[in-house]
Amino acid sequence: MTQKKLWSRVNHTVGYILYIFIIAYFVWSLVNIIGDFNNELNAGGQVLNIIALVVEVIGFFFALYFAIQLIDGVLKVGEVHYDLKKITGKAKVSVIVPIHNVQHQVLEDTLIGFSKQSYTNFELWVADDSPNETLRTKCEEITNKHNFTYYYEPNDRFKAHMVNIVIPKTDGELLVFFDVDHIPDKDILTKFVAIMEQYPEFAFIQAKFGFRNVTNLLHVWEAMSLMQTFCSENARRKIGTVLYSGSTAVFRREDGYPLPEEQMTEDFDHSIKLIMEGKKGYFLDEIGSHSLVPETMPHQISQLFRWFTGQSGAMSDHAGGLIKNVLKRKMKFRQAIDIVFSSLLVVAATSFYFLGIIYTVLYFLKVPLVRAWFLGQLWLIVIVSFTFIIYFATITATTLYSMKSATFPLKLWHIPFFLTFGSLTAPFYLIPAFKGLFGKNKMIPGKTQWNKKVPLYAWGSFFSVIGLFFLWLTTDAVIQQLCANKLISCYHSLPYANFYFMLFGLVGLTLAFCLPFVFATSKIFKPQIYEEKHIYH
User: Fold this and answer.
1) Tens digit of pLDDT for each residue in 134-178?
2) Which of 124, 160, 215, 295 has a CA-to-CA distance to 86 between 20 and 30 Å?
3) Which domain holds residue 150?
4) What is the rounded CA–CA span in Å between residue 510 and residue 292?
5) For position 247, which CATH number holds?
6) What is the pTM of this model?
7) Which residues contact 447 (CB under 8 A, 6 or more apart)?
């Protein structure tokens, strides 16, 4: 057994132990709540305790799953070896770069990268549906200058439809999709062809992005967030659930056409479709292109709004198909679980806030928090501590992977900022995550914007007010705790000790600073490459 496989097995063994622990905690607590052996609860109190328990366990499960996956990602499980010297050069590659209201210098940087490719048997199509005639004219001139093919057609049905229009006009047996701001590595087409020729079992290959404009803390947070995604893709190779990420990917022609249209995340939906058909992709953990990360907080939130709505919405679209394919043994149960995890990760991560609401109701109604025997409410401290350890493992894995990947200049002192930015932006993902879960993930021609402006100041104000309320609750809960332990004298207090203040404090801190965070980031981080008017469309 190789050292890599050994450490992966240790990783999963520890994970299974923690899974058993949380299942035992859940069952033990459930029995105690339903049995109510100390006669502390009425029917309403039992229901509230069960709801809170379910949310606690779901959050723990998702956090643990993600940590295990990232550790496997650092270990690079499922990696295959390929030989560039064995490629035949016979496979023709059709590269498609869809554009919409693109500044010509961004397009030219990418086309220059393709003009330097070590693999020469390829064609490149720039697929333009920009309504701006001035931008179209300039992009056509740039495309012709580099001897590639420019194609324009009016289109109000978004990126996937434009790609589907162009694919039948190409004749390559391999289809490569690139975003306009992704400058290709000079050997990426060679690597794509080599793996596709030497591993016919792969329907597609998704390569990693590097980042060329990481110049401030906002960019570091954005880049590290994508590093988490790439790290988890490493682990998905072993499961057979590698996901297409919209750019820097190659497909066999029969597997890349057609792309799902009018979906907010056509890449995510197409990945699920292929997996349900019994096909699998491969994640190439090498830099395939050098991308631009969003330059402002509003642009980043806007982009993530679409992604998270689309990903959680995939569950409402594909849940029935997943169940059917598992029952018919067309796909593995493990694969279905991974797709559910990938779709609902943001929903689970933001469930932390709903747990705070449930605890608030318990607190005001003076309903005891009933959990497993012996430790009682001290279980809350145990669960929070374990969750903290899991998140620490997640951040450690992300940091190690980011440093090894060398996709941007990561420093150790960037880590606190990554955690801070992540916690302060998390509340803004509540709405898109649950919009998608309720089926609001469709792109409607003439109505939906690809990237739309999100009212960050209005949302930030709302979240900050809620955060101040939770900070007040934290103070009140601490006083109640001191009273219950007779450390201070109180006129009136809860008749039992409680540890709600721990969660109240965490929720309060992450919410109260939302508005100041929006204000500060909007003032500090300004567009440098993109013009603001071309970002939202």
Assistant:
1) 999 999 999 999 999 999 999 888 999 999 999 999 999 999 999
2) 124
3) 84-294
4) 28
5) 3.90.550.10
6) 0.93
7) none
